[in-house]
Amino acid sequence: MSRPLPLALAQLPQHDAHAPLTDFAAEAQNLLARFPQTRLAVFPELHLCGVEGAGAEEHERLREIAEPLDGPRVRQLAELAGDLGVWLLPGTVCERGPGGELFNTALAFSPEGRLAAWYRKVFPWRPSEPYDPGDRFVVFDLPGTGRVGFAVCYDAWFPEVARHLAWRGAEVIVNPVMTTTADRAQETVLARANAIVNQVYVVSVNTAGPRGTGHSMVVDPEGRIRAEAPGNGPTVLTDVIDLDDVTRVRTYGTAGVNRMWDQFTEADTPIELPLYGGRIDPRTWRPGT
User: Fold this and answer.
1) Is 14 among the domain residues?
2) pLDDT at residue 199 greater than cutoff 90
3) 78 is in which domain, residue-wise?
4) For residue range 82-96, what is the model confidence (pLDDT) as tens digits?
């Protein structure tokens, strides 16, 4: 058995916040013309919402460009995905929430041209980012292939995010990033670590220069780097990942040894987690339970 997923990661510079969406449409069309077998096209964090700086004036500009999920930007992106006939993950956008909140929201559009999933970044990079945090983890299904989860940029530094996505059945974690600082080296380590300890694929796509530090990558469920951009220049990474590898690694173990999702039996005593006011319950430990 095999569940192949041809994907393309677009490590590209940000668009200006006021650039017409036709510019992005041309970019996506060019990507698919070059790599026509692509089924999942992934772009970086805030790819369509470029605003220079991080001061009060820039934060106000982000609020000005924010739109609700039923606004024109989402409708146009849905139409574009339908026209292209692929799963389109255009990065994140500035979303105006129903109560006036400002969210940094990852979007997923189906090949049929519908908004299939959205995820509001739970861990904004404070104090530099003005976004309100989301309140839930999000996974969505690619019919006939498998389940995908979202984690946006700084979310990757919190192991609770990847753990919950894997527990909810994610076999691929898509991590759109806009890292402009020197910590991209640590983020690439975290991408591998999150893949290893959850036995999932991690797809981390960063913004290209001059603002972004690049080094986008695809990591397999045992932590091996399958594809990696060598620097911060504009590029497209392509790969065909097999989601049955997740099943194989969880069944036989990482390096044929470690099977963390089979750690507990139902007879084991729950482990209290005082940090969270919760517990690990052996009866509900495995993904999908």
Assistant:
1) yes
2) yes
3) 4-258
4) 999 999 999 999 999
The answer on pLDDT for 54 being more than 80 is no
Give tens-digit pLDDT for 140-180: 999 999 999 999 999 999 999 999 999 999 999 999 999 99
Indicate the burial class of 100 (C-beta count within 10 angstroms; 0-12, 13-18, 19 or more): exposed
Of the candidates 229, 233, 231, the one whose C-alpha atom is nearest the C-alpha of residue 210 is 233
The whole-model pTM stands at 0.96
Q: For the chain, how many structural domains are there in total? A: 1
Task: Find the CATH number of the domain harbouring 91.
Answer: 3.60.110.10
